[in-house]
Amino acid sequence: MSEQSPIAPPPGPGSLRLIVSLGLIAMISGLFIVLSVQLTREKIAHNKQVALEKAIFAVLPDATQVVKYKLDESGLVQLPNEATDANLYAGYNAAGHLAGLAMEGSARGYQDVVKVLYGYSLEKEAIIGMTVLESTETPGLGDRANNDPEFHGNFKNLDASLTGDGSAVANPIVTVKNGKKEHPWQIDGISGATVTSTAVGNGIRESTNRLLPLLHQYQGSLVENLNP
Amino acid sequence: MQPDSLTFIFLNAFLINNFVLAMFLGICPFLGVSGKIKTAWNMGLAVIFVMLVSSMCAYGINAILVKYDLEFLRLISYIAVIASAVQLVEMTIKKFSPALFRTLGIFLPLITTNCAILGLALFQTNRSYDFLQCLAFSVGAGAGFTLALVLMAGLREKLELADVPDVSMGAALSLMLGGMLSLAFMGFAGLGG
Amino acid sequence: MVKDPRLPDPLSWQTFTTGLWKENPVFVMLLGLCPTLAVTNSAINALSMGLATTFVLVCSGVLVSLLRKVIPKQVRIASYIIIIATFVTMADYAIQAISLDIYKALGAFIQLIVVNCIILGRAEAYASKNPVSNAFINALGMGVGFTFALLCLGMVREVLGMGSLFGVHLFGPAFQPWAVFVLPPGGFFVLAFWLWLFAVARKRTARAQPATKEVADAA
Q1: Inter-chain contact B193–A37, Cβ cutoff 8 Å?
Q2: Chains A, B: CB contacts under 8 A, how many?
Q3: Are residues B189 and A107, on separate chains, in Cβ contact within 8 Å?
Q4: How many CB atoms lie within 10 A of CB B70?
């Protein structure tokens, strides 16, 4: 590395020359960047869509199409396909009927934050699938949360029904020690990866407690059938 | 603890995912400037300072770029802004506190190419931290960098007295030590959870 | 640009192999260690990182060499950084377009290629003083050398830490992976091991005299 600073006092050529040459460089670089952004834009959007659909179809087994929504205190709004601030994804089956909803949850794991996507069925009032979106958990231990079939069995029909008035989840989701699962709202943890499986449970609990009552309130704005 | 609380962000950058020992950012100064505890300490202070300044700058720049939908210029603006911020900091210190400049001065140019600084800016953008979270993150990262550097310097000062086979002298030995430290830092996983 | 007192190096096989062996950026010059340690937890990550860095090295080398008479000395570092950042941004978008999985695995380290000292070092020490063809060949050699070093680490770490190579499982289900090797400490240990190996090899070569030099260059 040279110690010479880039803005040393100019003893040689005048500052005009410096500005012109820097401007030239900046123009070339701008040209290259804009060119590559233009060329790759479509492909990147396509890749992101494919990755998102893959994750959503994994948690909503019947779904073949996705519509994005944003759900908060003010209501449930349908978003255009290229939106990036969606927090609720509705999956529709081949016939265009609503197959379920996918939502994200995150909680603190062993190494870092664990981010999961789970599928929720309105009819069953239960979670019907889960996939880990992001985690840096220990290979061989914590990462089993993503590929252990027994652990994933927990999320085939995990009770997340609401109380009578729909203002809260009746039995908040909780992770219990391996082999101690007694109720349909409990997740059977992975032995040897307790912290990570607890984090998955915490992420889903936090997300269901917040979103499901809202969803109950604004359920009317969901499109039931894509091609009526 | 909530994953987005300030304490967690600080602890995470400081110990659990230490910038040097777990994320491998700033390895060059980690190996280069860790000969003496005193220099390591001064370098660490300079890094904390520059991290704070550039984290704030990066936060501002990103807000502007997002507003005008110019995210593809992010990298170029970050690197330009960090380089100029370091120069500015250098000039300011030189003018107002010559004593401090003598301590930190020689490290400041080195810091511009320290990937921990740019890494900090990129990570805080990726995780979309708000302003306070950025500050907690930068102080944690800087403190973690300093801790790793000082620990390493302490070990190397002791090791100078040891009798080591000559082929494994130098970088190989330093990396081995780094590995041990990194292994020890893995014990912080799950801290405060 | 003031006239360089040194004549440009003649273009030769040496221009290429220098970066590969004699001045290997990782094993000999100890440059660019951050990505070397951070993204080599699997062979495929190591390969993608190596290729991305090579792309930036070659493109910025060529452009710097093309503009070497235009860029005033006072603003050269700033210009080099802009040029490098441009190509890194391009590589970043290209990788997103090719595979999001690789992009996720490499994370911020693609953008951190910008502060990889190898690239700025090459631009400053070689490309700014030599004609385009030399700069191209030299940068290519350095890039291949860097990729080779990353692969050395990535392959060892993946085989020991996950029991696979490029995602293909090598051992039966009974194999218990040595997980520490894909974790951060493993990066330090494996690089330390390679450096030690190279130090031993170089010591042997030095002792056995120039007869083996040809072999080393051919390798």
Answers
A1: no
A2: 33
A3: no
A4: 11
Which helix (H) or strand (E) is A116 found in, with range?
Answer: strand A113-121
Q: Six-digit token pair at B137?
A: 């993150």
Enumerate neighbours of C (3 or more CB pairs within 8 A): A, B
Instruction: Name which of A29, A111, A113 is nearest B189 (Cβ-Cβ).
Output: A111
Residue A98 β-bridge partners = A92
Amino acid letter, residue A115: K
Beta carbons within 10 angstroms of residue C155's beta carbon: 18
Contact A3 B109 (CB under 8 A): yes
For chain A, the structural domain boundaries read: 38-223
* Average confidence (pLDDT) over A145-170: 81
DSSP 3-state of A75:
strand
Instruction: Tell me how far apart the alpha carbons of residues B71 and B131 are, in angstroms, rounded to a whole number.
Output: 18
ipTM for the whole complex: 0.86
Q: Which two tokens stand for residue B190?
A: 């799950």
Q: Which residue in the block uniquely carries the two structure tokens 């030995």?
A: B173
Helix (H, G, I), strand (E, B) or coil at A107: strand
Round to whole Å and give the CA distance between A204 and A166: 18
Specify the 3-state DSSP secondary structure of A103.
strand
* Contacting residues of A for C83, CB less than 8 Å apart: 25, 28-29
Write out chain C's pLDDT in tens, 219 residues. Answer: 344 444 455 667 777 888 787 888 888 888 888 888 888 888 998 999 999 999 999 999 999 999 988 888 888 888 898 899 999 999 999 999 998 888 888 888 898 898 888 898 888 888 888 899 889 999 999 999 999 999 999 999 999 988 888 888 888 777 888 888 888 899 999 999 998 888 888 888 887 755 444 544 544
* Structure-derived torsion over alpha carbons of residues C208, C210, C212, C214, reported in degrees to the nearest 10: 180
Residues of A in contact with C99 (CB under 8 A): 47
| Residue of chain C with shortest Cα separation from B27 | C34
Chain C contact for A40 (CB, 8 A cutoff): yes
> Is B182 in CB contact (< 8 Å) with chain A?
no
Q: So where are chain C's domains?
A: 15-166+179-218
CA distances from C183 to A105, B178, C186 (A): 26, 13, 6
Instruction: Record the pTM.
Output: 0.84
Q: Which amino acid is at C84?
A: I
A141 to C179: CB separation less than 8 angstroms, yes or no: yes
Task: State the Rg of chain A over Cα.
Answer: 24
Q: Does A8 touch chain C (CB under 8 A)?
A: yes
- The minimal CB distance from B16 to the residues A33, A37, A111 is found for A111
pLDDT one-digit tens code per residue, A5-63: 445 444 556 788 888 888 988 899 999 999 999 999 899 989 988 888 888 888 888 88
pLDDT at position C210: 54
Minimum Cα–Cα distance from A45: chain C residue: C97
